[in-house]
Structure formats: C-alpha cells, structure tokens
Automatic annotation (TrEMBL):
Organism, scientific name: Ephemerocybe angulata
Entries under Pfam families matching the protein: NmrA
Top-level taxon in the UniProt lineage: Eukaryota
Protein name stated in the entry: NmrA-like domain-containing protein
Coiled coil (UniProt feature): none
InterPro entries: Ergot_Alk_Oxidoreductase, NAD(P)-bd_dom_sf, NmrA-like
Length: 287
C-alpha cells in the first residue's frame, strides 16, 4: 500500500518520504517538477492543473494501490477548489486515509468560518472520510528560509512580534506526526493534533540564541503591520493573503501561539529552537 505525498519537494514532504521509505513503506512523491532525490518514485503533479491528478494513481509497479494521501499546498491560495477533485478521485480509487498539513492559526479550525486548509479540513470531516489534520505552529526552519537573508547580510530579524512567545516547531517533528498518522495512527492523541516545539521563545530571545551560537550580535527589529504587509506583497502574495498573514502575526504578539500549550490536542515535539539553531549555525554564516 503506497502513500502519495503531494507537494513532495517541500520540507515536510521529503522528511515524511524518508521516514516512510526507511520503514519499508512505498512512497510516491507528486510535485510540479517531478524531480525528487534519488531512490524515490515520482510523478508530475500540479495543483493548478486537475488533469495531472489522474497520473498520481497510475504510477506503475509498486504504486497500484495508493491507500494514504498526504495533502499539502505549496503556492496555492484558493485551496478547496484545487483539493476537492483530488480528494474525490482518491476516494474512488480506494484511498484509506488523508493526512492534511494545515496550521494552528485562526481560520484553520474546521467549521463554517474556516478558509484555506481549514476549508479542506471542514470538507474532509463533512464527507465522513478517515483523516488526520496536522496543525503545526510556526516552523523553526523559517528562521533560515524567511529571515536567513536578513540574518546573514544584516544581522537582523524583522517582525511585528517583539514580545509574543511562540513554541516554534521543527520539520522533523511534523514529519514524525505525519508518519504516525499513516503508520501508527493509534499513537496520536486525536485526529486534529496541534504540533508545537520544545521551546517557547520570543523573537528577541531567538535573536539572543543566534547571537550566542553564531558568535556575532543578531538583533530583533520591530516593524509595523503595514510594513510587514508590504513585504508579503513584494513576495508576490495576493493582497488578502498578505493581510491575513500580518493579522496572524498580530495575534501571535497577543499570545495566540503560546495558548496552544494549554490545548489538550497539542503534541509537544522533541526539537527545540536553540538546539536547531546550534545544529544549523553554519547555514547562518555572515555574507
């Protein structure tokens, strides 16, 4: 029984694929490029092209029976219209369980006011399908992917969150939860776990951890919500999504992410931000 991993070239997709393959579970990585590391089967797949969905279920020997689908949406903003045709096709092809990578923020809870991945969560639930929805808080890896340029070139982290504390979660912990959702679902405390990391830190505290690990001073600089929205727009994000992300940051400053530690659905991961920084400190070398 094979697992189809959509957006398989992403951080969590590849980490999950490695865990599954190492445990003897067949994996099929679906990505826009169709290019994956050696040792993995792949198929070209594009969320913007529903005609590509069928190929994911006709990949050949070893993948005749796709029983699990890991859903993640990279570069997709109107998510439910893209997801529904694949989910419908997967059900017809006998998929046993869907594992959705969602998020911990507002709007991602299932219900009438949900949107984005929250709307997909709501749809899976309304259809009575077997699913697990992973709801991680902010990725530790974003300190390299999003803030890395500023840290390496200017020794600065810019955010709108000077005091809000966040239990940043690592990709490896998210991948482990996804693996359990497929292979050992009984290990999960519920089917909608909120995933957090082992540390609870503010952005200035992260800057202090970087300073200690890198041996040079890294400073946190507070910017306005308007400045942040402009940055997101410059990245090419739609205006509504840019404004939503800026609002998520505003809520984080007011303690929204820290509150997850009091939620009975929460799973605390093994990887802490300080540990992750020390392990990856060479990647933050000054330019």
């Amino acid at each position: 029984m094979s697992t189809l991993i959509t957006g398989g070239g992403s951080q969590t997709g590849l980490a999950l694929a490695k865990l599954l393959l190492a445990s003897g579970h067949p994996v099929l990585i679906a990505s826009r490029s169709g290019l994956v590391p050696d040792g993995f089967a792949s198929v070209k797949f594009d969320w913007s092209d529903p005609s590509s969905y069928e190929a994911a279920f006709n990949a050949g020997p070893g993948h005749e029976e796709v029983k699990y689908v890991y859903l993640q949406f990279v570069g997709v903003y109107d998510i439910l219209p893209a997801a529904k045709p694949l989910i419908e096709l997967a059900v017809k092809r006998g998929v046993k369980r869907f594992v959705l990578l969602s998020a911990s923020g507002e709007g991602t809870e299932k219900g009438p006011n949900s949107f984005g991945t929250g709307a997909v969560h709501t749809y899976l639930d309304a259809q009575g399908l077997d699913y697990v929805v992973l709801r991680p808080t902010w990725f530790i890896e974003n300190f390299l992917r999003i803030y890395g340029k500023g840290i390496k070139e200017h020794n600065v982290i810019q955010t709108t969150i000077p005091t809000g504390r966040i239990p940043f979660v690592g990709v490896d912990d998210i991948a482990q939860a996804a693996f359990d959702a497929i292979v050992n679902v009984e290990k999960l405390p519920n089917k909608e776990p909120i995933l957090v990391g082992a540390d609870l830190l503010s952005h200035p505290e992260v800057a202090e951890a970087l300073t200690k690990s890198l041996g040079r001073t890294i400073t946190h600089v507070t910017i306005t919500k308007e400045e942040l929205t402009k940055q997101y727009l410059a990245f090419g994000l739609p205006e509504s999504f840019a404004e939503h992300l800026a609002t998520v940051c505003e809520k984080a400053e007011n303690g929204a992410e820290e509150e997850h530690l009091n939620d009975p659905r929460t799973i605390i991961g093994k990887v802490g931000t300080r540990e992750w920084i020390e392990k990856h400190k060479e990647a933050f070398a000054a330019l």
